[in-house]
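Morning!

This is the sequence you dropped in the shared folder:
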Amino acid sequence: MSRALLEVKDLRVSVGAGTGSRPGEGGIEAVHGVSFSVGRGETVGLVGESGSGKTLACRSILGVLAPGCRIDSGAISFDGSDLLGLDRQGWDGVRGTRVAGVFQDPASYLDPSLTVGHQLSEQLRVKLGRGRREAHAEAVDLFAAMGLHRPDRVYHQYPHELSGGMVQRVLIAMAVSCDPELLIADEATTALDVTIQAEVLELLKKLQAERGLSILAVSHDLATIAELCDRVLVFYAGELVEAGTTEQVLQAPSHPYTEALLRVASVGNWERRELEVIPGNPPPVGTQHLGCGFADRCAFAVDRCRDRSIELIERAGRSVRCVRADDVALSGVRLIA
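The structure's back. Tokens below.
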């Protein structure tokens, strides 16, 4: 069996840590020992409510945690090499060339005072050593490959002159310009209208097929995850609570939180007139709990859910952190028919 391209093991991340603080000093733990992998050419989806730790995990992989955030322990390896031990020069050789990211609100990642073509060309010159003319021609070709109409004109436009969908395509062009092996797409379609979302998803699938990309996709939209991903990881309160193939997780969830996410989703159920919600709220970031963090919101909860730690158990080719997984699986809630 070939080695996974990306492996994350027992990752723990704190937020609110002071500048220069060491692991275990200050801050609150927001990601609690998360482990997962991404295979070569595989698309893995991360789902869960805001504050569940998805973005912190992704930014840890890219080495771009915000000030006040800190990796306390764990391991992140890419193609067998340790990422957490890299210095700035080491990251320059990985970020953008082997691992790249596309995020929500793409315009905020572009310099408004420079044309998008100049910014892409500069990346090609710095990262790949292209000459000025070669970089210009390659940038135009990349814009064309992203489905941008009249790419030669787009090259000379500023971010504010482009629509949201066009800006996202520019960011994707920049992300894949150095032919990375892994693309992290964190809510890459969230701010776009439904039609443009579908076009961007098709673009990502096309790029994956043509370039053999591995994709780690974060989304609140279960329909997006169902269309794009081979496997799904469900995060809740900083923990991984369920993992499996997309068909397994979205057709027969084993964790009450996954079941609740599917129940409140409106996908494919246009006859419903009232929008359901999950009762209660997620625990504040960093909350320490003995049992299951979802117990107070869970219709399946019993005493043993609250009085002991709940381990992530491997069962039938998938993982679940729940003592009543069999009962949840019989509930009949599903997204994929």
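Headline: The two ends are 31 Å apart (CA to CA).

More detail when I'm at my desk.
O.
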